[in-house]
Specification:
There is one protein chain. It is built from 4 helices and 10 strands; from the N terminus they run H-H-E-E-E-E-E-E-E-E-H-E-E-H. The protein is an alpha+beta fold and 180 residues long. It is globular and about 50 Å long. The termini are far apart.
Length: 180
């Protein structure tokens, strides 16, 4: 069992290695705006604009024998057509004995917003399983604007909460790109 945990972590970390870790608090908003891509198809009425993914490796229960690593990818994306809507897109990879079932987010100040489930996948199982949950949190432009970082807590059905912080430079760069 002791040898299995490092193996699972190595597989999980390797599978997520395609998204680099960048400190977006130090990247100018204009540079973030240049990285926003348009995802479009002839089958969609609205264009989807996506900012680059923010990759975080989060150590859970540090110092405990039950320490494990969560790998989180977060990005802001917009859907542009007759109207413009914004979404925080969060994908979390974790190892455990059961699903977390993320179902809502709490913004600073306590406002709760529902999380739309985009995908739930069991990646592998042995004594414990490797899970990936992806959710979208709809945000208004007013919620995106501000002076500090954008923060919210992703809430799960089992009571677990994950605090997600998106640096202000990243948010401002995203807003700059989608306003064009």
């Amino acid at each position: 069992m002791r040898n299995l945990v490092p193996l699972l972590l190595a597989v999980t970390l390797t599978s997520c290695a395609t998204v680099p870790t960048v400190d977006y608090s130090t990247v100018p908003p204009e540079a973030v705006a240049e990285q926003v891509t348009v995802v479009d198809s002839k089958f969609d009425r609205r264009a989807r604009l996506e900012a680059p993914a923010i990759r975080e490796v989060v150590e859970v229960n540090p110092g405990s024998p039950f320490t494990h690593i969560d790998i989180r990818h977060t990005l802001l994306r917009a859907f542009k057509g007759d109207t413009l809507t914004h979404q925080a897109y969060v994908s979390i990879h974790y190892v455990g004995n059961r699903w977390r079932f993320y179902n809502s987010a709490s913004l600073v100040g306590g406002q709760a917003v529902p999380a739309v489930v985009i995908e739930r996948v069991v990646e592998s199982c042995s004594r414990s399983c490797s899970y990936r949950e992806t959710v979208g949190i709809e945000l208004t432009e007013e919620q995106l604007r501000g002076s500090g970082d954008l923060e919210f807590r992703l809430n799960s059905q089992n009571g677990r909460g994950e605090v997600v912080t998106i640096p202000r430079n990243y948010v401002n760069g995203y807003l700059l790109a989608v306003s064009l």
